[in-house]
Amino acid sequence: MDAGTSTESPPATAPAVPDRTELAETEAVETEAVETDVLEANAVDGSGTGGRRFRRAPRARRRGLAPGKRLPASRLIGPALFLALWAVASAAGQLDPGAIPAPWTVLKTTGHLWTDGTLPTDVLTSLERAGYGFAFGLTAGVLLALASGLSRIGEALIDGTVQLNRAIPTLGLIPLFILWLGIGETFKIAIIAIVVYIPIYLNLHSALSGIDHRFVELAEVQGLSRLRFVREIVIPGALPGFFVGLRLGVTGSWLSLVVLEQINATSGLGYMMFQAQNYGRTDIILVGLLIYGIFGLVSDSAVRLIERKVLSWRRTLNS
Fold it and tell me: What is the DSSP string of 10-74?
């Protein structure tokens, strides 16, 4: 080595720190290279293993688009929030007690009505009327939808009549039904049945008409009988639409009941509310409305629970 040659090494420099973009690109290239190696190794023989076992390359985690897990008692959160706001506004004096009594006042009135025996009698009477009307409406809606949805002759005879009935306001039929059936309980049950059967028929008929024709062709190729065709293809395919109509029918029975019980009735929640109106008792009116709301929420939740059990085989966004 020459004496004039310097033996000192050049000054060390700090290694450059790659930014996040370069790291992400490098990681993506490495991951792609590993996946390519795995695919090439698996293609060596027909078994897909190439005589060696490889670890699956990590994949980027996708962002979930589903709504996520169902919250416990999620359908009670909205009503509970409404009651809390009502209580806070009443305690702060923002609501007129004569127009909208406080929740504790309504609760106290409910206790008095239940103790003197008025409320239990009215609740049982309303449940009986709604139950009979719903049963008749459910039966009529299902039978008419099956006859119309599975037969062209039935559709020609039934569907137009039902569509005409749907266009006529059901509550406008009350005077005519009073003349036909009298002013007793019969006309009330008949009106409730009409309110119930229309949404059940419409949704079930739409579900039957929407069954894919390829399933019909498959059943014909397999030689299924008419009964097996209905049991194995028609019913499973139409159940989602049926449950939608059932929920609307349950709600409709309560909506029509509050009006019908104010016409020549001597008991029932609607009658109780009508009498409270004459005496200016808004607390009793709110008691009736809250009970109607509770009945509607409970019945709708029951239908949803049955639907979830019956249609547990489906994989939907909600599930």
Answer: PPP-PPP---HHHHHHHHHHHHHHHHHHHHHHHTSSTTSSTTS--PPPP-PPPPP-S--SPPTTG
